[in-house]
Amino acid sequence: MADQQPASQQPAPGALVRRHRLSTRLWHWLNVITLFVMLKSGLMIFNAHPRLYWGIYGANFDHSWLQVTHRGDEGILRIGDAVFVTTGLLGSYRDAGGAVQFHAFPYWLTLPSNYSLADARLWHLAFAWVLALGFAAYLLWSLLNGHIRRDLHITRGEWSPAHIWGDIKQHARLRFPTGAAALRYNVLQKLAYGSVLFVLLPLIILTGLTMSPGMNAAIPALLDLFGGRQTARSLHFLAALGLVLFFVVHIAMVLLAGPLNEVRGMITGWYRLPKDRDHG
Amino acid sequence: MAEPISRRGLIAAGGSLLLAGCDKLNGNPALRGLLISAEDAHRASQRLLTGGALAPEFAENQRSPNFRSNGNATAAGNAEWDRHAAENFARWSLRVDGLVMRPLDLTLEALKALPQRSQITRHDCVEGWSAIGGWTGPQLGTVLRMASLLPAARYLVFHCADRFGPTPYYESIDLIDAFHPQTILAHTMNGGPLPTGHGAPLRLRVERQLGYKQAKYVMRIEARASLAGLYGGKGGFWEDRSDYAWYAGI
Predict the structure, then answer these.
(1) Where does the record place the Oxidoreductase molybdopterin-binding domain (chain B) (predicted)?
(2) Is the residue at A119 inside a domain?
(3) Same domain, A149 and A265
(4) Taking phi first (over 0 means left), then psi (-120 to 50 degrees means alpha), and beta for anything else, what does residue B125 get?
(5) How distant is the Cα of A233 from the closest Cα of chain B, in angstroms?
(6) Cβ–Cβ gap A121/B42 under 8 Å
(7) Chain A partners within 8 Å of B19 (Cβ)
């Protein structure tokens, strides 16, 4: 994003302005591919043992806090003691040929679409390098070029409940900033991007490493940090869920804010400042 | 205006194209080779970070109350193993051969007479579950020093009595893991004789790798210069059958 300028020099609504740096645009589109592969292959890996545990160990005889299973032809999701029937989505579905299958996630959500833990691991573990190295490079670059300090840092004023509440009200009415104000991230945007950059992505990378027996020997402190391998596995899954939620809200906001302008901004870097709303 | 293709239909069609595309990429030999080559990066980076570090060990009260078995739950049906099991493995012996100066046949008694190591460790199945249990046995390094490896030896292959269909199970490790202090040949689990489900009479514990490397029902250890020529050439049953990683530290 452009540096802050005095009001007299701020671009007028309707003007075409530089919005996203090359580093942001490259990383954004790399993430589209990487997160797609990681999510789909990760869901296949989950299918190999569709239960989640808290603690240092966990297997079939131990108590799982989440389990996807089936009862007859019904798909079942159990969280704690709560049981949900999820036929078609979780635990039971019809494959492309119409046959009933009982894997946790259906074929259209997994990579590959047929059951293969080995193939899913090939994808997941190779793209883990792309995710981790891309993230590290982006973080480093954004620290050096001031992107984090200038655009993502949440100021003291923005942290005030009144300011956040005001922003929530604006969002709820689908009233987005116009003119030069649209160049700056608002506090809800900063919170969303900040959660991904500083919470979800570090969490998903570190919990991924914590599941590796080789890394447990190299850095046992990771096990202590997360409270054991099975807790790390549960957190890894929850962080993935967090990224999916971010993705859903992100796409919704792009659609509401003007998809063509937003997508052009992320491809070319050029963005047309929204005009003031017509109050007529 | 009539819509020849509904929006919903279009999304569904796009979705199945994407799905077919992914599966096509999954089957593409060049891309698959690239994905598989990431295994070298895993091994090299983990070996660099880990050095000789030990896998975490646990206290007795941290063990799984009920340790489920991995892989085959028995080697029954293999006539040789059946005969030994009927005699409670009294006349069973472990064969150590291949690129060694002195091939060995070690009975359970001989293995128990060697210096022993006991360790309570976590077993991580490639599927995602973990169980913690105690294992006792001689270090593999002790046995290999007795047999005296020839300079050309680079890999240890574990030939097992259990089978998947007609194929016996087999696994392999390199010398770094073979001489790691926690790599033991376990004849005892949680204080009792190794149960059938866990690979009686002897299983490998190589604690910094996943469950499928922990060969059970071990009958023979063969020292080799290369994994080429061993069944499919990738060093293990699952490695040959479905491209599981030979280095399973992750």
Answers:
(1) 89-224
(2) no
(3) yes
(4) beta
(5) 8
(6) no
(7) 107-108, 113
Q: Domain residues for A76?
A: 51-102
From chain B residues 21-40, the ones with a CB under 8 A of any chain A CB are 22-23, 26, 32, 34-36, 38-39
Which residue type occupies A280? Answer: G
Give residue-wise pLDDT tens across range B173-223.
999 999 999 999 999 999 999 999 999 999 999 999 999 999 999 999 999
Instruction: Please indicate, yes or no, whether residues A88 and A179 belong to a single structural domain of this protein.
Output: no
With respect to residue A139, please indicate whether it lies within any of the assigned structural domains.
Answer: no
List of chain A residues whose C-beta atoms are within 8 Å of the C-beta of residue B124: 211, 213, 229
Among chain A residues, CA nearest to B239: A118
Q: Look at residues A207, A211, A230, A227 and name the one whose alpha carbon lies nearest to residue A52.
A: A230
Separation of CA A240 from chain center: 6
Residue ranges of domains in chain B, CATH in brackets: 9-51 (no CATH), 55-242 (3.90.420.10)
pLDDT digits (tens, 9 = 90+) for A208-254: 999 999 999 999 999 999 999 999 999 999 999 999 999 999 999 99
Residue A269 Rama label (left phi>0; alpha psi -120 to 50; beta):
left
- Which of A128, A125, A139, A126 lies closest to A27 in space, CA to CA? A139
Rounded CA-CA distance A279/A273 in Å is: 18
A223 shares a domain with A160: yes
Residues of B in contact with A111 (CB under 8 A): 22, 26
Query: CA–CA separation, A68 vs B32, rounded Å?
Result: 30
Residue type at B105? Answer: D
What phi and psi values does residue A78 have, to the nearest 5 degrees?
A: -115, 125
Tell whether omega for the bond before A112 is within 30 degrees of 0, i.e. cis.
yes
Q: How many domains does chain A have?
A: 2
Give dist(CA A70, CA A37) in Å, integer. 27
Q: Is the CB of residue B213 less than 8 Å away from at least one CB of chain A? A: no
